[in-house]
Write a structure and sequence with these properties.
single chain; alpha/beta; Rossmann fold; Alpha-Beta Plaits; eight-stranded mixed β-barrel; 17 strands; elongated
């Protein structure tokens, strides 16, 4: 029986209607009635919903009475907790479930979490995560004699607010919560009767209190909780990756989020001890789960590093594709349409400048190497180069992965005509003389300095430029307009080539501000004798606009999608044969 003692008529009417719809027994009591005190102590009462004040008692006395009552049954209070002085016991007051102004759906979620709805809870359509209230674990551990829990620590989401702003952070947090709710009760996740709660309204920590009956009312067997946490980690990762990869019109994750937010899972079990304060036991339960969270995060990082080391050492898991780069001033709309129709660069051979190496992953090869590992915390099928490098950055193998990608791209592109562009991290570029064995004696390489790292040593940059020039290669500022690729950095670098990021050229024909900015870059590039390349061009209007502004080189899906060496060489030969035939 749920006792409802409130003056809030609208809330009371909506709540009683909702309780009736799920078959939950309840009783309304007039706050002015003399029966208020006896009613809340009725042995049949399973939970109490009351106003923060009553005419019968001073508020302090009323709250003390409710706090005492909450030690044996759930008590939810309409209102906000009063401020407490330093010498008052704030923990005791925290046992009460504060409902604020009184939202019926959140109240129902709290009642369900507290276990007072019984079988009727199955009728609820859970669409949100209730805020944690200490009464839930308190009554579960007292009723069952033990309590097992999982804790999901997603505090890594906070970094998103620093990198992308608060609005993006809130959208990612909402997406994370939606995924948790959708997983609730699904195979490979946690059960519908397990209780999911958020630590506080703005927290990125979530608790899952496990129903005791999941294994015939016994404690989970040794190692079971660890397996549950591992399985849930993988499931959650897969769901979040799926959000990132969804089409733009379907995804809930902001477009700028391209890598997985960090999170970890912990687990713990506590036994009720009548000789100890139950709240102390629950505090210890949370502390144990939090410690396991740290351990599990390290295990995930160790496993990711081992996977990356396997990729790097095997050398047959990564392979190159190549994307053509063209002299923009030699391109016409007619030739572009011919190339699109034939799905070949043959009509554009006369405008060909060179190629960029782009790394791909042989997922099947990698799956075969880790097939016997049941603790892989990621879906191999979802691996992309940008994801690999994000993993490598926090696994401290980014330099080794970068060296492998450079070696694979150069070795596979020996037969390609024109300059070959390869990405390189600044820290590897600083030691390029030690990586000479990877260059395959090729003399027309263009080292694209990645935007993922800063480069702030001008003297070192001078030495690098001298060495690169000595081996007849050159340097490009990659993705200008994104990340660390600022004007100041380009001036210090003095590259032979500046690559405009896709964000600067997308719909440039419709945005005057972009035109002015790119026009300034083109003019500045001439003063340092640098060539400008527009990458990511997807429409003829974009190409025509940058062509008119004096951009010399172009790269993008409008002209060519990355392909294998063999396919590209076939197209080049066909293009040359066609030209010879036309001359003849």
């Amino acid at each position: 029986m749920i006792s409802i003692i409130t003056r809030h008529a609208k809330f009371r009417a909506e709540l009683t209607s909702k309780l009736s719809s799920v078959g939950a027994a309840h009783r309304e009591i007039d706050p002015d009635s003399e029966l208020v005190i006896s009613a809340i102590y009725d042995p049949k009462v399973s939970a109490v919903i009351v106003d923060a004040q009553t005419p019968k008692l001073a508020q302090a006395a009323w709250l003390d009475l409710l706090t005492s009552l909450s030690c044996r049954l759930p008590v939810f209070v309409l209102g906000h907790p009063p401020a407490r002085s330093k010498d008052q016991d704030s923990r005791a007051g925290s046992l009460l479930g504060w409902l604020g102004a009184g939202d019926v759906s959140s109240t129902m979620a709290m009642l369900q979490a507290a276990g007072v709805l019984g079988g009727s809870s199955q009728s609820l359509n859970q669409t949100s995560i209730p805020i944690f209230n200490a009464q839930v674990p308190l009554h579960m551990i007292q009723g069952n004699g033990a309590l097992s829990m999982l804790v999901i620590n997603a505090s890594g989401l906070r970094k998103i607010s620093v990198d992308y702003g608060f609005e993006v952070y809130r959208k990612v947090q909402e997406c994370f919560q939606h995924v948790l709710v959708e997983m609730w009760g699904n195979p490979g996740s946690f059960r519908r009767n397990d209780i999911l709660m958020q630590k506080s309204p703005n927290s990125n920590t979530y608790y899952v209190f496990l129903e005791q009956s999941r294994i015939t009312n016994a404690l989970p067997a040794p190692g079971v909780l660890e397996k549950v946490a591992d399985r849930l980690t993988l499931k959650l990762q897969q769901q979040l990756w799926a959000e990132i990869f969804k089409p733009r019109n379907e995804k809930r994750m902001p477009d700028c989020i391209q890598t997985l937010p960090e999170f970890s899972l912990g687990h713990a079990t506590a036994l009720n001890n009548p000789c100890l304060d139950t709240l102390d036991v629950i505090d210890q339960l949370f502390e144990m789960a939090a410690e396991v969270c740290k351990v599990q995060r390290r295990r995930v990082q160790d496993r990711e590093r081992e996977i990356l080391q396997t990729i790097i050492h095997s050398r047959d898991i990564l392979y190159p594709n190549y994307q053509a780069i063209f002299n923009l001033q030699k391109i016409s709309k007619v030739k572009v349409e011919e190339a699109q129709t034939s799905k070949s660069i043959s009509p554009l051979v006369d405008a060909l400048y060179g190629f960029e190496s782009l790394i791909r992953v042989r997922s099947q090869h990698l799956e075969e190497k880790v097939a016997s590992d049941h603790l892989v915390y990621l879906d191999i099928k979802l691996l992309r180069p940008d994801i690999l490098f994000a993993m490598a950055a926090h696994s401290h193998v980014a330099l080794e992965l970068d060296q492998l990608c450079m070696a694979v791209g150069i070795a596979g592109g020996v037969e390609l005509p024109g300059p070959l562009m390869v990405n390189i991290l600044p820290r590897n570029l600083m030691h390029l003389d030690r990586l000479n064995h990877l260059l395959n004696a090729r003399s027309d390489l263009v080292f694209e300095i990645s935007e993922s790292e800063g480069f702030s040593n001008p003297r070192q940059m001078e030495k690098i430029r001298d060495y690169v020039k000595k081996i007849n290669c050159s340097i490009a500022a990659d993705d200008f307009g994104k990340g660390h690729a600022s004007i100041e950095r380009v001036i210090k670098m003095r590259p032979a080539l500046i690559k405009l990021d896709r964000s600067l050229v997308e719909k440039i024909h419709l945005e005057p501000a972009k035109k002015m900015f790119v026009d300034g870059v083109v003019k500045a590039a001439k003063t340092i004798n640098a060539t400008v390349l527009a990458e990511g061009i997807e429409t003829w209007d974009e190409a025509l606009t940058v062509q008119a502004m004096g951009v010399e080189l172009i790269q993008g899906f409008l002209l060519h999608r990355p392909e294998s060496l063999e396919r590209i060489l076939e197209q080049i030969r066909a293009g040359k044969d066609e030209n010879l035939g036309s001359v003849a």
